[in-house]
Amino acid sequence: MMKRVPRARERVREMAPGVAKSLAEEFDQEVREIIQKKPERRRHLESLRERLQEVLDRWSIDPPKEVWLANVSPSTSPRLVAALTLMTWRCLLYDRAPAFLTSDNPVFWFTHIGIGRPESEVTFPISSNIVLWAT
Asked: Is 86 helix (H, G, I), strand (E, B) or coil?
């Protein structure tokens, strides 16, 4: 749920320029190495590099939805999964009246603390009367 929400898509947008820059640098290094070994391929490789840079420039401004969806799976965040697994989970119940609210970003944690530190907390309302609380 942490990764399937609008805020997660915003985080992908925020990270996109740095990821695009890193990918471009990595590809440039590989192209330089290939050109050293096969100078006759220089023209073709430089053309590929220019096309890739155009794509990365577009993606750094507006990453495609597929990039976000590819990162939704828990398998793309093993450290996050490990941290959540090690936390103590409790269900808090309040049966007198509706007490818990949800939204389009239902999972809450203190972003300045993060997840996986001793002082980390995660809450997730299951219903208006039940909330999961992990510490």
From this structure: helix
Query: In the sheet where 89-93 sits, what is the strand order?
Result: 89-93, 130-134, 122-125, 108-109
Cβ neighbours of residue 128 closer than 8 Å, sequence gap 6 or more: 98, 99, 100, 101
- The C-alpha atoms of residue 4 and residue 65 are separated, in whole angstroms, by 12
Query: Per-residue pLDDT tens for 29-70?
Result: 999 899 999 999 999 999 999 999 999 999 999 898 888 888
pLDDT of residue 22: 93
Any idea where the domains of the chain sit in the sequence? 6-70, 77-134
With b for 16 or more beta-carbon neighbours within 10 A and e for fewer, the 35-70 pattern comes to beeeeeeeeebeeebeebeeebeebbeebeeeebee
Mean pLDDT score of the chain: 91
pTM of this structure: 0.64
Q: 116 CB contacts (<8 Å, ≥6 apart)?
A: 79, 80, 82, 83, 86
